[in-house]
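tool_call: predict_structure(chain=1)
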Amino acid sequence: MRIASVMASDQTGTPSEPLEPSDHFSPEAQKEFDSLKAVFNCPGNTVLFIEEQVPSAMMFLLEGQVKLSMNSSSGKRLILGIAVPGDTLALASSLSGSRYNISAETIYPCKIASLDREEFLRFLIRHPPAYKLVMRELCSDNARSSEQVRKFGLTATAPAKLAQLLLEWCADGQKTEQGTRLSCMLTHGEIGECIGVSRETVTRVFSEFKYRNMLES
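tool_result:
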């Protein structure tokens, strides 16, 4: 079962501002960046990279959404977040050349700009101000990861975790007189993987929220 839309209470968190370095380059750097990158489209449910794979390219998400996840040795999956347009996918691993510690899979059809990793490193050397933009995005990634741990790792109950997740999504939802309308292509099982609970628990908590008129689908 996939959730097409959810009406949630009109409270929002403070979302992190996505950073796309190319939006802030100097005209000269922007022109060179555009000449180096390759833009491609891919359908939904496309695996872009997996854990332990060695990165060979930088990937900048231009359109669509990408699911970022981590897997345990027993096969249990934790969804770390959803990348949105403006995000650089696995920036830290791509810069360092270390193996990916996450996997990335498109949710919707996506448009992605790809740039050879070594070319991007040489680009940074030629345009030192771009290092500041990279540093800002690394800091933003770290802040989002810390917030993720605080919200879901330190929250005791499943209803509180699911409420936190819905409120986070409300920041990008459509405001209506009844509340905020959310579009979500994640299954109940995948939502459970976002907050570390089972599919059955998510279904039960959604039912409780509906019974208490906290949301409607």
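agent: Confidence is low (pLDDT under 50) at residues 1-22. Proceeding to next step.
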